[in-house]
Amino acid sequence: MTEHLMFIDGKSMPSESGDTLAVVDPATGASFAEVPDGDAVDVDRAVAAARTAFENGPWRRTTRTERARILLRAADAIEAASEELFTLETRNNGRPITETRAQLSRVPEWFRYNAGLLAAQRDGVLPSDGPYLTYQRRTPLGVCGIITPFNHPALILARSLSAALATGNTVVIKPSELTPLTTLAIARIVSEAGVPDGVVNVVTGGREAGIRLTQHPDVAKITLTGGTEAGRSAAVATAGRFARITAELGGKTPVVVFDDQDPVVAAEGAAFAAFVASGQSCVAGARFLVQRGVYDRFVEALAARADAIRLGDPADTSTQMGPLISAVQRQKVLSYIDIGHQDGARLVAGGGVPELPDALQGGFFLRPTVFADATNSMRVSQEEIFGPVAVVVPFDTEAQAVEMANDNRFGLGAAVWTRDLARAHRVADALESGMVWINDHHRLEPSLPWGGTKESGTGKDAGTESFDDFTWIKTVVVRIAESDVDWYGSDTPGRLN
Fold first, then answer.
1. Which positions ≥6 away from 144 have C-beta within 8 Å?
2. Between the CA of residue 4 and those of 1, 36, 185, 482, what are the distances in Å?
């Protein structure tokens, strides 16, 4: 067992209560680390440190050039520590090392991108009638809270943290209690790169800490990635004090496959969409809408691919899929598999717990699962399962496919597989989702705004949209006329706007 402490005001600290939480390796079910079980008192300590650093510290007053330089140093330092971070995250959340390496190797890009936006930022000059010069200034918000999930802890942290720091804010981070370790490591790396004490703070803990952070009167903005109900509660809490919120929440991503596409090619892409991160992704391709002309061949190809996926030790480079995050999550997914059977869907792959070596028997593994002959109204087609379960539903016409894809309370991501260029753009335009991939899935860049519609959340992470939303705009109007203003002494009053 290794002990990891919270990070507040540049110092490693236990929780005020002294309570701790065990960190579990989901591949074995064994605890291998412990972190403080922070609560509202610890959040208050962290917010106080962040507020002092914002109001009295040098960070927001640091020149843009220097802030950008520090972010670039942080990016280099994260890159230099990448092997340690890959290993730590793989053990903490159970994703295969090949996936973790591919994802975390991109974390420095977010710091470099936002450093570039900062260096290139230009304030606007607005047109005005009369003798006035009007311009705008972007000002940091203050203390920002970042609440991250268990599935992509380092990458999702980097998206918000790099933008918040670039724009001069201070932050308090509350990572998932299941996967706090890479967050703590990155916070220390950023601090060592030159970010002043108190600017980046991390409180580990459970639900109480997260609730207090969303409700804290000194927190000006919350970015949250998590479940829809958590996002709804955070939105209510922030609305009470008119704080900003960016919430990336649940999803039930439709993947529409048309009969002009090779069904085997589409099935291979579909397998990645459904089973990467063991299906524990808000944009997992969980709902495949397939045109009848290729339906049977697609189902056969997807089932074969699912059955061939290699499960095993996430640290082994030959492993293609790791465990679910916890026993609770695996049981939830198994219950949905039972629901699929009860509702009449046909199981064509997976559906149970795999046989693995003794060292992994305590882990939370589940075979990649495919249901065919489902309807769009079934619970397994409508509800977010957050596990390696794919549902295949047939359709006949393009209009029917669009209607079925949009018939869901979520709207985070969607994908279209077709060789018809006009159809690809037409359907992408009609889909109600924040992101659409054509003949691919789950591709992202620091410049691409990430976020959904409907119950998938509000606001955008990444891109200039995220960068700008960590600031508020101040408009300055300067009178440049030679004459003085004398409204009441003039025979020819001016114009009031």
1. 160, 164, 169, 170, 171, 172, 219, 220, 221, 222, 223, 470
2. 10, 8, 9, 64
Instruction: Give, rounded to a whole angstrom, the gap between the first and last alpha carbons of the chain.
Output: 67
Query: Which tokens hold the place of 197?
Result: 């004490």
Residues 6 or more apart in contact with residue 249 via CB below 8 angstroms? 225, 226, 227, 228, 230, 231, 282, 412, 452, 455, 456, 457
Give the C-alpha separation, 263 to 182, whole Å: 39
Distance from C-alpha of 144 to C-alpha of 389, rounded to nearest angstrom: 35
Return the amino acid letter for 457: G
Q: What is the pLDDT of residue 485?
A: 81
Burial status of residue 229 (CB atoms within 10 A of its CB: 0-12, 13-18, 19 or more): exposed
The average confidence (pLDDT) of the chain is: 95
Q: Distance between CA 155 and CA 107 in Å, rounded?
A: 6
For the question of whether the overall pTM of this predicted structure is more than 0.90, the answer is yes
What DSSP assignment string belongs to 194-232? TPPTTSEEE--BSHHHHHHHHH-TTEEEEEEES-HHHHH
Residue 484 confidence (pLDDT) above 90: no
Residue 185: enclosing H or E segment and its boundaries? helix 181-192
Q: What percent of the chain has pLDDT over 70?
A: 98
Query: 391 forms bridges with which residues in the sheet?
Result: 287, 371
pLDDT tens digits for 355-400? 999 999 999 999 999 999 999 999 999 999 999 999 999 999 999 9
Q: How far, in whole angstroms, is CA 434 from its chain's centroid? A: 13
Give the C-alpha separation, 157 to 48, whole Å: 21
- Tens of pLDDT, residue by residue over 74-101, are 999 999 999 999 999 999 999 999 999 9
Query: How many Å apart are CA 14 and CA 37, to the nearest integer?
Result: 8
Cβ–Cβ under 8 Å, residues 298 and 349: no
Query: Token digits for 216?
Result: 């804290």
C-alpha separations of 334 from 25, 281, 328, 341, 380 in Å:
20, 17, 10, 11, 11
CB 462 within 8 A of CB 158: no
Please name the residues in contact with 318: beta carbons below 8 A apart, sequence gap of 6 or more. Answer: 310, 312
Active-site residue set: 248, 282
Token couple for 372 = 């065919």
What Cα–Cα distance (Å) separates residue 281 from each residue in 69, 76, 189, 286, 459? 33, 28, 27, 10, 18
Q: How confident is the model at residue 493 (pLDDT cuts 50, 70, 90)?
A: low
235 dihedral zone (left: phi>0; alpha: psi -120 to 50; beta): alpha
SS3 for 388-432 is CEEEEEEECCHHHHHHHHHCCCEECEEEEECCCHHHHHHHHHHCC
pLDDT score of 420 more than 70: yes
